[in-house]
Amino acid sequence: MLNKIWGSFFFVAFLVAMGRWLLQGDYEVWAAMVAAAFDMAKTGFEIALGLTGVMCLWLGIMKLGEKGGAVDLLAKAFGPLLRRLFPDIPEGHPAMGSIVMNMAANMLGLDNAATPLGLKAMGELQELNPEKDTATNDQILFLVINTSAVTLIPITIFVYRAQLGAADPTDVFIPLIIATYCSTMAGLVVTATVQRLQLLDSVVMAYLGAMTLAVGSLVFYFSRLPREVMERQSSLISNFAIFGVIITFLFLAARRRVPLYETFVEGAKDGFKVAVAIIPYLVAMLVAIGVFRASGALDWLLAGVRWGVDGMGIDSRWVDGLPTILMRPLSGSGARGMMLETMTAMGPDSFAGRLVSVIQGSTETTFYVLAVYFGSVGIRNTRHAVGCGLAADLAGAIAAIFVTYFFFG
Fold it and tell me: Is the residue at 290 inside a domain?
């Protein structure tokens, strides 16, 4: 599946560029596509290079967590749920702890912490994989959860809106939480259906119910705070959580008389290896996306959709958010650029400006996560991972459109 999608980016881009050249006399399209290919190759390497230090840091900290017993404690707390969602992971396996830590980091919006933790979990799941080039059910479910992870504190969205002059940068908070929660539940349900997991189990329902209550409580609490207080407390919680994890792991490791420095360095060496292994996969995906965008294929698609929506007599305001919707699964930086461009052109407090803000925070970048996570362990056959991840993206986008109309329409 991934081979076909990757190749399609180039073939579609070529056909669109041929049309622009022969029909419109646009000779510059080829230069733009070639420049995009080289720029994206450079960007892919720079992203992986920039990730190296963070990978070393967090895999070193995670090694201390393993030796100190912190990961075991978390795995036991969430063990009943994880054993039902990831039935092929043996009890007590370190992958359980890494999965829990990754989920917690994603919920707090700690991207720098979530990615290395997720890569560590994927590597540990790969140890259990009998066919090293084919994704297992557990790896696919873990990836889908990452691509649709609930973010309780979307502080970066608020910062972008504030920089562009929004009267109340946090007014998208409740719609954003609703949209991201819908995408997560959709991804879980679709993947569980394909894999025949039993979600109606009483233990699973109890955990999901408790999480729903926790999400609702946080939404209720933060929605009552003034903008300045909300941003300050969100930032405080995020940074306290990061440093709290570091101190807790160090304390538990020290209590077990684990050699702290040597253990950290041992884990950091693994982080360097993982970061280097990512580079070819990341460059391949970003180059394909860059060429597709530079060809103008996205512009043609958008114009066609708007024409069709208008022809059906449907409110087409949501089409202004379509570039962000389409780019979100493909490129995080591309989607962010689309979001900022829309808010700059139409205003952060316009319907489109609020819509793209909600879309941006509703899901993760599916193909980036897929390329990085599966690429780090050498998986080529992704099975139903792409379809389930895109189903979560679609649910998040639809939810974002509906809640934006409901709150701001």
Answer: yes
pTM for the whole thing?
0.71
Residue 131: HSE in the Cβ half-sphere, 13 Å Cα cutoff: 10
CA–CA gap between residue 327 and residue 337 (Å, rounded): 9
* CA nearest to 139, candidates 88, 78, 187, 198: 88
Under a CB-based contact definition with an 8 Å cutoff, are residues 45 and 283 in contact?
yes
Q: Residue 155: pLDDT band by 50, 70, 90 thresholds? A: low
Per the structure block, which two tokens stand in for 342?
């829309």
Domain count, the chain: 1
| Alpha carbon distance 252, 267 (integer Å) | 16
DSSP string, 190-233: HHHHHHT--TTSHHHHHHHHHHHHHHHHHHHHHHTS-HHHHHHH
Nearest alpha-carbon partner for 241 in 104, 147, 57, 119: 104
Structural domain for 225, as ranges: 2-51+133-240+268-408
Instruction: Write out the two tokens for 14.
Output: 């070529």
Query: From CA 366, how far away is CA 330, in angstroms rounded?
Result: 6
What is the spatial distance between Cα 409 and Cα 402, in angstroms, rounded to a whole number? 9
**For residue 60, is it within any domain?**
no
Binning pLDDT at 50, 70 and 90, where does residue 146 land? confident
Task: Give a yes or no: residue 126 inside a domain.
Answer: no
Q: Classify residue 253 by its DSSP letter.
A: H
**Sign of the dihedral defined by the CA atoms of residues 222, 117, 135, 203, in that order:** negative
Residue 303 lies in a domain: yes
Is it the case that residue 408 has pLDDT exceeding 90?
Answer: no
pLDDT tens string 218-248: 677 767 777 677 667 766 766 677 688 789 8
What pLDDT is recorded for position 326? 80
